[in-house]
Amino acid sequence: MDIFLKPDTWLALLTLCFLEIVLGIDNIIFISIVSNKLPEEQRQKARNTGLFLAMFVRIAFLLGITWIIGFKQPLFAIDDILPNSLINLLGLPGNHLFSGRDLILGFGGLFLIAKSTMEINHEMEGDGEGKEGKKSSVPTLTGTIVQIILLDIIFSFDSILTAVGIVDRDKVIIMIMAVIVSIGVMMFFSGGISRFIQRHPSMEVLALGFLILIGFMLFLESLHIVVPKGYIYFAVAFSLLIEFFNIRVISKRKKEPVKLRKPFTESEAFEALELKQENVQFSDDPQYPIGKFVPKENYSREELDQLIEKIDLLPYQVEAAVEGFDDAQLDTPYREGGWTVRQLIHHLSDSHLNAYVRVKWALTEETPTIKAYNQKSWAETPDTRLGVEYPLGMLKSLHKKWVSLLKQLLPDQLKKEYIHPDTGKHTRLDQMTANYAWHGEHHLAHIKVLKKKKGW
What distance in Å separates the CA atoms of residue 386 and residue 357, rounded to the nearest whole number? Predict the structure, then answer.
């Protein structure tokens, strides 16, 4: 341990630690993005476990330093695997040599490009919620950890070769210490970076763009085309600076006071209903008189305002629809084998209570997995035999809170999601708002069709 008494040793250690951390920035970005796909309670575990195991992989590489250096020895040339006719047709240099390092960097770069492109496509196209029968895949803790380890192996080659170039091979202990320090720094900062990226979706797209750039640079390096890394670091730093300014401007706008958009009062609701023209055509399907719900991929602000107004007016529409009903009418099934009118109204209050809670979950947690409930069983509990004035009163109060909340949400908040535990599907709040606007009209139509059929 005499080497630690020499100033050169500490200088080399500090230099290596700095370079390992700088070279690990792209690794932290990737780790932040893949871990953000997991439920919030699993993210830190995935990051720390993946990095901890990756640390041992790097140390193993350092201990096998001679083997790693051997990866730079040529393995084959292009003319060893391709015929001359094809080489001449494509204009390739037939004598170009490939080493093990080149292959790893090349395939690693292509993987980064493909993975980042798919993630950008996911951000732009969504999870396929609106596509019939398509379920989104839910990442697993194990799969995320494996991705972190595999990508760290690819990123390790640069850092290991850098270490070998700075420190003599007989001072492996210094290299190992630098790896441990750099992994520790990654563990410390990865959580904060992950949360920052999660709060700012534009930053995630920018980070994915960096990874595509880094993947392309790795691929070029595998072809022995050297692009100075200073260019990459400058591009990343400049883009980040612009994005930080953009985030700052947006946050200042969000802090501006907003006008409170209140739900209808009772008198305003009845005035709105009087002006509302009833031109809905019911189908012959007793189960789906207004058809099944079909979500759109995107909703304009005007469309969302109309959907929220439907939710706002629903309690008054249901109340008007059953006005004067006696117990016999309330206990009449809306269709053969279906719920009674009384159960429908109790179901509306139960279902929309769950919907309100789901909105609050999505707003206060990061893509939470909600709690499902058994609708059929809930419609058969003893409280569903109470008079309909109780669920109607509950609907009125609940919808005032719910509508008041929905009217204040910003576009980014309406894009927040929750995960259904049975299907694994991600549902955005704007799509959920459309779904429950339809849900209220769906059950209101059941009552109206029954009234028309019975002549009430």
Answer: 23
